[in-house]
């Protein structure tokens, strides 16, 4: 384990250098305080910190380097089950940097600084989208998107791979679900499917056709 500068705590085995290990999400300094109550009702809007319990690395999963020939992520890492995981169980929350994009109804008026810098990230997941007419939206006339990006900081959930292209595999054994933590904070989670995950098996999800379509070519 490595306790490097910037990490929340000791990182789990096989954690890569250059990625900050988190036990709870972080907010950038530019995150609008008006949006914080939408994702964490107990958060401190002044300090932009989450008053939630740190999320420990699950004891039944581990990060493992993939050396299998034919695996699309060979040479990279995946998340594997250390023991059998039953169907319908929360495996791990997905933690990262929570960010927002606020753009006007008229897309022709979007300024460069309003463009989503996380849109090209392979580790970015959507948490909440608000239309300009949504009563919860604190920015009238604007579209609001909130996401969580684990490209540069996160937990072991960032290593979950897509099932596509895996030799002999026809589908996922886990899925992304929108959920909430003990303190009511909005978060993305990874749950096992009905089939469960066998001991030593890689945890596999579907990134969705949209994810792959955006990366063709």
UniProtKB/TrEMBL annotation:
Protein source organism: Kwoniella europaea PYCC6329
One Pfam family cited in the UniProt record for this chain: SET
Taxonomic placement: Eukaryota, Fungi, Dikarya, Basidiomycota, Agaricomycotina
Official protein name in the record: SET domain-containing protein
Superkingdom as given in the UniProt entry: Eukaryota
InterPro entries: SET_dom, SET_dom_sf
Residues of the SET domain: 59-208
